[in-house]
Amino acid sequence: MPLVAARATSTTPRQQRRRSLSRASTGRNPDLRRLRDEGYSLSVARGRLVVTGIPFVSGPGRIERGTLIVPLDMVEGTTARPTGRDVFWVGAVPCDDRGVPIDDPITSPLRRDFGGGLVANHLLHAKPDDGGFEDYHQLVSSYVGLICRHAISLDPTVTARGRRRVVVTENPQGPFDYADTASQRTGIGAFSGKLEGSSVAIVGLGGTGAYVLDLVAKTPVARIHLFDDETLHQHDAFLSPGAASFAEIGAAPARVDHYAALYSRVHRGVVPHRSGLLVASLAMLDQVDFAFLCIDGTAAKRPVIEHLERTGKRFVDLGMKLRLTPTGVSGTVRITTSTPAMRSHVRDMNRIPFPTDSRGDDDACNLQVAELNALNAALAVIRWKKLYGFYADPLGEHHAVYSVDGNQVLNTDSDGAAGTRCGPS
Questions:
Q1: Among 13, 38, 47, 176, which is least packed, fewest CB within 10 Å?
Q2: Cα(259)–Cα(305) distance, rounded to whole angstroms?
Q3: Confidence class of residue 298 from pLDDT cuts 50, 70 and 90?
Q4: For domain 197-414, which CATH number applies: 3.40.50.720, 3.40.50.12780, 3.40.50.300, 3.40.50.410?
Q5: More confident residue, 53 or 114
Q6: Is the pLDDT of residue 13 over 70?
Q7: What is the mean pLDDT of residues 185-205?
Q8: Chain-centre distance of CA 321, in angstroms?
């Protein structure tokens, strides 16, 4: 829930610091600063504007106060012209002075959990004469005027202004370098919040691991630890996300340094480690909550897996087995999950081939294709998000294989908590 400080006759040092944050939150945005200066109680956080203390009629002769939640359109940290006309409302259905629900703005029941305890229960739709709002000052003041006028007719002393509280940007030192306005626009803020504060490791950035980073960097995890001991090669540019310049490739930077610099543009918590996770350095994994293993060759990953198991960590191992045929590239992409609740399948079912297995080092091959690297990463990130409750997880599968030939995903090794096994691997 956005933080607010109660109005007081004197100003404490803590309130002074919060007022500084208030100016920082609205200083670059004249429309928000104007709302603040007019006395509205508002806060800016997670790509949304929250305006509290709005008086409205909730029934015959009854006045309450509600809250507007406005998703913000931002460009380079400043507000843009609103592209939408709808806002969210926390409170009962706004009524006229007789207690009859008003038809402007139109109120529709819609529950939206924004995370942090902020839950809207209605969607409001206003109809501006010119078809849109010039800025967020006009948008907010229009909605407040439409809602408050009925309360004012019952009690001329009520107002949404003059109750100004200090505007505080929630968690100004959060994981992103700029606000995640996408989560709030699409209504997934509460589910994204389940990933907050966690720390993940990505072991290997040769292709698939870089795609994992591309996806994880858009989530609010606290830290993303990168482990790789290779330099950036020219072939990496054709197997990984983004577009490395010829000069960047020529400089031969460490992969972890290249990708840390690239994704630090959006995420503040990217931490590079120039290490292939040798036995002596495995303790570095103790600081993470989850690991993505994106390295070829199980001889290298075996000690990593054993350490993660020994320390009770959850992880997903990614593998790809492709081959050239007369009709084209064929093969499979594999995702194997291991959690404290289910580990035996890794060895009992040979889900991750180890060098001592009869199958040998099957995943240790050089044949890669960018789109399959991306698919491998996407499936792994989806599985990770399922474990954290972002996605529904009715099956609870711990092993999945995508077949290029058949264009299908076969799931198995259910943890038994949510569903049944679905197909062989």
A1: 13
A2: 24
A3: low
A4: 3.40.50.720
A5: 53
A6: no
A7: 85
A8: 30
Range 121-126, long-range pairs (CB < 8 A, 24+ positions): 121/89, 121/90, 121/91, 122/88, 122/89, 122/91, 122/93, 123/86, 123/87, 123/88, 123/89, 124/68, 124/86, 124/87, 124/88, 124/89, 124/94, 125/85, 125/86, 126/85, 126/87
pLDDT tens for 34-70 read 998 899 998 887 778 999 999 999 999 999 999 999 9
**Which letter, b or e, does each residue of 78-113 get, where b requires 16 or more Cβ atoms within 10 Å of its Cβ?**
ebeebeebebbbbbbbbbebeeeebeebebeeeebe
C-alpha atoms less than 13 angstroms from C-alpha of 385 in its C-beta half-sphere: 19
- The radius of gyration computed from the CA coordinates of the chain, to the nearest angstrom, equals 26
Nearest to 212 by CA among 200, 223, 194: 200
pTM: 0.69
Residue 280 has what pLDDT?
Answer: 65
The position carrying tokens 């079912």 is: 349
Q: DSSP for 55-96, please give it.
A: EEEEETTEEEEEEEEEEPPEETTEE---S--EEEEESSPPB-
> Domain residue spans in the chain?
13-176, 197-414
Whether 358 has a pLDDT exceeding 70, the answer reads no
More confident residue, 357 or 42: 42
Give the residue carrying structure tokens 């997670």: 46
* Dist. CA 92–CA 41, nearest whole Å: 19
Side chain identity at residue 270, one-letter code: V
CB 149 within 8 A of CB 94: no
Q: What percentage of the chain's residues is helix, strand, coil (to nearest 5)?
A: 30, 25, 45
Q: What is the mean pLDDT of residues 116-127?
A: 85
Average pLDDT over residues 254-274: 93
Q: Which two tokens stand for residue 229?
A: 């001991």
CA distance 213 to 255: 12
Q: Where is pLDDT greater, at 64 or 8?
A: 64
Distance CA 176, CA 184 (A): 14
108 and 90 Cβ atoms separated by less than 8 Å: no
